[in-house]
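pasting for ref. prot 1 ->
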Amino acid sequence: MGGVRQGSGGHSAAIRFRAAGGLLLVAHLLLVGWITLRPLDVPWVSAANVEPLAGIKADLALGGVQAARRIGESVLLLAPLGVLLPLAGGRLEVSPWGSLVRTVAAGAMLSLGIELLQTGVPGQVVDIDSLLLNTFGVAVAHVAVVPAARARLRRGGDGRPRVPLPREDTSQGPTPTIPRVGIAP
């Protein structure tokens, strides 16, 4: 989502956006790490859930409010990555599908890493449904925010099309040619 405007200060604005995105990304990941990887003092721990959708079904059996809270927590935990990863990447001119695939894949890998790290943390258990819901949250946040934000930033933020900076001429003149030499008889 990087550079905002071209012209005077456009490049520094792009750097500021990327830096802010990187800083927010690190802060969010530290918060997620603290939430998910701290030891819990619990009298007992449930078994790991490795059957897809079994945990979601169990949450739904608890009732609407409790299910919405538990499922919503998993969806929202990594959802900001759907916006922060492209922001930290800083690219405006990118394929929307490619950006979505890269962002969702990175979110899934981060969620998988968290689940694997939880195996060594007392009181924390692996839950495949957390991985699915975390990844879903990343995808929803990306689709809801990033394409519109990139389009707005490409227009220059004020609705007017952005005027590109003139490119420096990096050519070094015409390509040298060698006159044809006949083949020996």
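and prot 2 ->
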Amino acid sequence: MLGETRRINIYTPPGHETGGPPLPVLYMPDGGMHEDFHHITGIVQVSTVNGTMRPFLVVGIENTERRRDLTGPTDDPEDRKIAPRVGGSAAFRRFIREELMPEIQQRFRTTDESAIVGESLAGLFVLETFFLEPELFDTYIAIDPSVWWNRGSLVKQAVPLLQRPGQPPRTLYVATADEPEMQRIVESIVDALRQVDVPGVHWHHEPMPDEHHSTIFHAAALRAFRTVLAPAAAEPTNEPGAVGTSPAAP
């Protein structure tokens, strides 16, 4: 699919190594051993043991050309300066859908539930997938996503994409650090979610003004897992800056 060998790293929670019940799967770009795999699996391990999140099989996708795989097309010349090749997110998504997911389901005992977590450009990929291929995952966790990409085009498309028929139920958690412009753009996405109010789509916006882009990942991932992957999720509210929800259709 991508025409290259990809290293995939797997974490199995304690007590689920062999013969245990099927597990939901948490996928993560930036999932190399020298990237964010150990950071996220450490949070998953502690959170699973202390009962603040459900056990998940974690699938880390190690990068080869990160900026190619995690970005969509762009017509902004400044964007194209970040790497020799960009705009490959559709092919990367196809690899996950058509190669990686079937392989994981074949090799491991899994449920039908899946989630994805990513930060920065990986957060952009999470949000783009939430809008463009919403049925791929059940839960989307986007941490300080690089929504400035292509002059913020994802924000401009948010309302019409949410208005497309046949929207599947899903959950979005998005956290932002102390950068005002990033917060403004993400708030526009939240406004689109409020405006369209898609049945069955739940969202949680978490501004974290005490965190920087370089520090937010751990703190936000911990909050996100406790919020949207908890053993028994709390009832969502419409408190500003907390949880928003489009209630499931009766």
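The first strand starts at residue 8 and ends at 11.
The chain is about 35% helix and 20% strand.
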